[in-house]
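User: Reviewer 2 asked us to show a designed sequence for the structure in our supplementary figure. I'm pasting the structure tokens here. Could you produce the per-position amino acids so we can include them in the response letter?
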């Protein structure tokens, strides 16, 4: 007889991308996001049986049913992001983490604390306020009796998008068999080294197996050329005109190859000047919410000695987040790009669930060695 699905709460749920990533064998018993556009997308794809659209600060433990196996929290990242104001946990949006944590504390008092908690955020969480924000999160977890460890995971292992994230996995369950030599990068090692001894003693070196080899590149997720809107030649030349010598030489090399090549580009401020920076490695840059000029990601198509340019479509952005073609996007272009840019990469969640979360919760950690 098969076991019942693992249950989970999904906080800051957005369009339900963590839920999609967890997939079969997991049952959502509560989801929360107060953004109206994201809530509409969630309903369109999953219904609203478990969706609560109030602010996390207005929720109480009584709103959360039962005792979930997992609480997933992808709290607002703007105050942690390298592109944001770097206000850290004291910021108006990222402080929503403490609204979530207040609920976890209330559940603990009732003996209903989730056995495992996952906190997903931008990589800036490792270094925000000199590491003090990361330490504050760890201190919260340790104070509630959890052991924890962090992973640095790049979406490029799963989809053709460069999107590096900090993922903290905390548990009250024995992790034996899922630990070992760290498989993450320098940010994790440095963040751990900065922790006080009392917190470092609670640390788990999670062993995350390598993801299956990614097969698709950026070109593979794009719409047909005749199905999209292209920018004018003058607009394309203006974009190229903002390149510095290095990026212009790279473009010339691509054109000289004679092959069709797809590049991804952003306009960024460098030393007080706006510059176009393009990459031609088969990856999109990190998706962002469409809040300003620097957040707009362009596609450059080099072919037969010429360059055309356009913006990403919402469906292309959804593919870069690992969403299925059946996923219903908002009707508005900006809303669709915002939903994707603020989400979590579904295949990354699936890999984490398959290799760490499921064995941990099923009590098979020791068998996973």
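Assistant: Here is a per-position design you can include in the supplement:
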């Amino acid at each position: 007889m098969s076991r019942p699905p693992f249950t989970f709460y999904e906080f800051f749920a957005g369009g339900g991308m963590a839920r999609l990533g967890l997939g079969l064998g997991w049952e959502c018993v509560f989801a929360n996001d107060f953004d109206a556009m994201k809530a509409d997308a969630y309903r369109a794809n999953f219904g609203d049986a478990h969706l609560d659209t109030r602010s996390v600060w207005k929720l109480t433990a009584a709103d959360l049913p039962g005792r979930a196996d997992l609480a997933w929290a992808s709290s607002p990242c703007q105050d942690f992001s390298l592109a944001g104001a770097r206000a850290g946990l004291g910021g108006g949006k990222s402080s929503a983490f403490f609204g979530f944590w207040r609920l976890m504390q209330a559940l603990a008092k009732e003996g209903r604390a989730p056995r495992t908690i996952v906190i997903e955020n931008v990589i800036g969480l490792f270094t925000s306020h000199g590491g003090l924000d990361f330490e504050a999160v760890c201190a919260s977890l340790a104070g509630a009796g959890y052991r924890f460890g962090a992973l640095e995971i790049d979406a490029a292992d799963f989809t053709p998008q460069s999107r590096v994230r900090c993922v903290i996995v905390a548990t009250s369950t024995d992790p034996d068999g899922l630990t070992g030599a760290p498989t993450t990068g320098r940010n994790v090692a440095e963040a751990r080294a900065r922790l006080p001894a009392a917190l470092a003693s609670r640390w788990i070196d999670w062993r995350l197996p390598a993801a299956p080899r990614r097969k698709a590149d950026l070109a593979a997720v794009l719409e047909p050329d005749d199905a999209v809107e292209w920018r004018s030649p003058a607009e394309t030349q203006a974009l190229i005109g903002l390149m510095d010598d290095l990026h212009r030489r790279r473009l010339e090399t691509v054109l000289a190859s004679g092959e069709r090549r797809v590049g991804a580009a952003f306009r960024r401020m460098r030393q007080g000047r706006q510059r176009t920076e393009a990459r031609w490695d088969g990856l999109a840059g990190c998706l962002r919410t469409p809040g300003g000029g620097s957040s707009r990601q362009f596609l450059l198509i080099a072919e037969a000695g010429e360059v055309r340019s356009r913006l990403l479509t919402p469906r292309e952005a959804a593919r870069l987040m690992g969403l299925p073609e059946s996923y219903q996007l908002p009707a508005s272009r900006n809303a669709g790009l915002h939903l994707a840019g603020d989400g979590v990469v579904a295949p990354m969640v699936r890999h984490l669930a398959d290799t760490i979360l499921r064995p941990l919760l099923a009590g098979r950690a020791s068998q996973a060695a």
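For the response letter, you might also mention the following. The chain has two domains: 6-213+337-368, 224-312. The first strand starts at residue 6 and ends at 11.
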